Amino acid sequence: MTTTATTPVTADADAPARGALRALLPALAAHRAMTARTCAAALLEQGSLVALLTLAAHTVGTAVIEGRAPSAGTVTTLVALVLVRALMTWREMDLSHDLAYRVLAALRVRVFDGLARSAPARVAGRRSGDLAATAMADVEALEFFYAHTTAQLLAAGTVLTGGSVVLATVEPWLLVAVLPVAALLAAAPFADARARTARGGRTRGAVAGLSADTVETVDGLRELLAFGALSGRRRELAERGRQVGAAQRAEATWEAVAAAVRDLLIVAAVLGVVAAAAHSVTSGRLHGAWAPAAMALSLSVLGPVAESARALSQAVALRAAASRVDAAVRAPALAPPPTAPSPLPPGPLGVLLHRVRFDYGGGTVLDGVDLTVPPGTTLALVGASGAGKSTCAHLLARFWDPSAGAVRLLPADGDPVDLRDVEDTELRRAVVLVGQDTPLFHGTLADNLRLAAPGADDRALAEAARLCGVDRIAPLDTLVGERGATLSGGQRARVALARALLVRPRVLVLDESTAHLDNTGDAELAVALRQEARTTIVIAHRPAAMRRADRIAVLEGGRITEEGTWEELTSRPGSALNRILAATPC
Ligand SMILES: Nc1ncnc2c1ncn2[C@@H]1O[C@H](COP(=O)(O)OP(=O)(O)OP(=O)(O)O)[C@@H](O)[C@H]1O
Predict the structure, then answer these.
(1) Phi-psi region of 343 (alpha: psi -120 to 50; beta: other; left: phi over 0)
(2) Which member of 175, 367, 397, 399 lies 3.0 to 4.6 Å from 558 by CB, making a disulfide possible if both were Cys?
(3) Structure pTM?
(4) 410 within a domain of the structure (yes/no)
């Protein structure tokens, strides 16, 4: 019983979804109280300025026209408004950034969860730097959206509405001068939204490309140096940097044009307001002493609208980043969790592949694989390069699900259990895959061994290390460097195997795990593996490893074409195994 967990809803960076920014809003739901406080602070910040400017203008108006000095109450109110404005400017910035950083922290975890759900199948086709750009740069770019748009837009809308009601009551002509400009300011960011989104998309794409190239260059520095290819790579990186610069410059140029247009609209509003006020005073509808206050109110409600228009125009350019983040967050699980998990029975487990078909979206790789590995036995899976052996291993670890057929665990007693029905944690304890190039993590040897079994005690750790010869590499508290860079390939293989043994899996899948070891090391590890009864599937090119297995299965043309013991298959002239052995370099 399986289910598809989520559905992808967004497009890639080249075609950001129209609703990409809206899709960011639900992230605020987890911080409702803080969002409300931020909105309230933004409203008080903007409202206090409008009130301050209006009251100050009124004070000046009555002083000049009527010769009345401001009362103590007016002066106190003005001082109070100045203090409120200053306090709320600080509070709004503090709260909005706090809110944004909390949302971004949660978003980074959700992006990571999305990558984990897709890994390694979907991420296999993407570049690490591109993924890093989504997880870091794209998420970081959204800080602007969360810190500078949502609360400010709501506050600006409220201030404009409140101001409009007052203006409509005092002098409707002032409202006529203000509202069209406010509408144009609000609409301006969307006037060229498509082009703005595309420009933002080009910047995000260029940044992701630069990130991908940089990560790949750092990873491959040794090879680039060895082949004298550093200067070529340097040129490519410089070109990438130039592309990022050009994309950012195009955005900045158009942003400057938008700023000039906003300024023009504000100037038009000032002229309109002055004309409307003059008309109202001369026609006797507005007392001259009130005219400065009415003009100040008209223009000050436009301030937050203009500021929000600037923020919105920048936010529209973030659609591409929002799309990339949203796509990562909503990535559907390629191996969805079971809706009704079946517990695995205790005791040894074998493996059963039943008519398994699989492709990576291109040609068929596995075309009806039938294979049974009884509990407690060792099977060597053999085949030419590209035959699909690793694909079988990945299906056994449930990195992918087969497109047809089933992969099942086979208890000694009882019904086989489909991998799709096993809860992930239980599956990870039962089946462990060790690959050829298992990367280690920055930390000590012991940290790396404990990765799969954090609760393992020191005795178990020492035993696994001893069995696989890890204790002969260095003391277990030795740092191994990033990806285990301070160890040799063979030493890394020993750590990877010891790590797997520490889990005490019931099914162990070894995908050319000892390829980096010499023959002695390979034989040594084979002895270590025999210490416990378990089902083992070995993908191997070495005849010695094939020979040690109870049975050998040959994978050819997407199917198992031959199965038997070493003696049976090698004694058969023209057998597939003999052909493979003949083609294997000594
Ligand atoms: N992530 C992937 N995306 C697309 N195609 C893939 C992917 N991984 C493997 N393939 C293709 O699937 C086929 C089987 O690959 P697989 O790695 O399973 O072969 P293999 O038998 O393990 O080979 P080798 O002995 O060289 O490791 C190959 O043609 C390979 O190019």
Answers:
(1) beta
(2) 367
(3) 0.70
(4) yes
